[in-house]
Amino acid sequence: MTILIRDALLDNQVTSVLIEGGRIRSVGATVTDTPVDRVLDGSGLHLFPSFRNSHTHVAMVLFRGYGDDMPLMEWLQTRIWPAEGKLDADDVHAGARLGILEMIRSGTTFFNEMYWHRGALVRAVEEMGVRAMLGANLLDLGDPEALRRQKEEILELVPAGEGEGRARLALAPHSVYTVPPAELEWVGGLAHDHDLRIHIHLSETAGEVERCVEEHGCRPAEHLDRLGLVGPHLIAAHGQYLDEAEMELLAGKGATVVTNPLANLKLATGGIFPYAQAKRAGLRVCIGTDGAASNNNLDLIEEMKMAALLQKHREADATMLPADEVLSLATTVPAELFGQGTGRIEEGEPADLILVDLSEARTQPVHDPVSALVYAASGMQVRTTLCDGQVLMHDGIVEICDEEEVIRKAVEVARRVTV
Prior knowledge:
Layout: E1 2-10, E2 13-20, E3 23-27, E4 38-41, E5 46-49, E6 51-56, H1 72-84, H2 89-105, E7 108-113, H3 118-128, E8 131-138, H4 144-157, E9 167-173, H5 181-194, E10 197-202, H6 206-216, H7 220-226, E11 234-238, H8 244-252, E12 256-259, H9 261-266, H10 275-281, E13 284-287, H11 300-315, H12 323-330, H13 332-337, E14 353-356, H14 369-376, E15 382-387, E16 390-394, E17 397-398, H15 403-417
Parallel strand pairs: 1-4, 6-7, 7-8, 8-9, 9-10, 10-11, 11-12, 12-13
Antiparallel strand pairs: 1-2, 2-3, 5-14, 14-15, 15-16, 16-17
Helix pairs in contact: 2-3, 2-15, 7-8, 11-12, 11-14, 12-14
């Protein structure tokens, strides 16, 4: 399909974008002789690359607001884990569709996922027209048979490798404290042999670091390195308690850390991700929302603002993590990391785009569109979302699914499993 986005604002200049075969064919021409299948009127709307959520548990929207304002372990043990134990594949599918719907509405077209029932997640991604990297989970909760089944399921998936479709494969060992060293080493070997990404939680709490030192004689990043997991394929979520040596280790081997400021603040895990140190070390950093059970939304605009403000506060430096840089953590950096082009609005790039209405009172006047987006806007101001040249939402109307049906089914599941 050929689509023309006409007369949108790009860097405060009126422009048009011609899309063909899922890619941007041209930028700037206001008139084209090329026959088009659809014209999207962008008048008065600001054009941006769509966002990429680099760490989340999308189906956990089912537990949004369920057990708020509770200590972490009490929340997990009395609310989340009992409810998750009732979920089947269809329930996860319903929750994932709701989460993806929320992301489409707030401008996100890719997410890096770690959750159960991967097949259900694949179905949701394909139905909703977005892209995702979906982890094959590994978690040891003290049941050897369950761990064996998880490994068997992973072995069934890995021969195909990462793949190139909308739903790609990663290996997702939960953390250094829930996966034994031997199993982590097994994951590292599989990732190397099959050229797969590894998605893991790392150094999220001080307790995790202390336990790792006590049990293994080293900090978590070094522990992973000894087991063969650290390299360009490693994507580590959180990293709030990484020290300088660990950051240099991760950077030197090309790994990535994903910061999730809102979830960490809400769960009171302590600490603020040391972005300035990461930047000095040359460590690649992306941004994610984590799950909506601990956020409580999947709005990357809100996440970007919080990330920028926290870094300014942490370093007592108003110049830290400016608006254009934090926007790159949700657009260009993950685009390159996950093999989706540059994440820029340029000829030849994937047509993953959004149109944002900055005419509301909260974002006027617009002196700088990027500043207005990051510091003043919300995801509710996204009016149009395209992924791979397909219109998922236009003028505030979701086209890829029956929105009411998606919400209704997810709410039915949530009511049942949280009883």
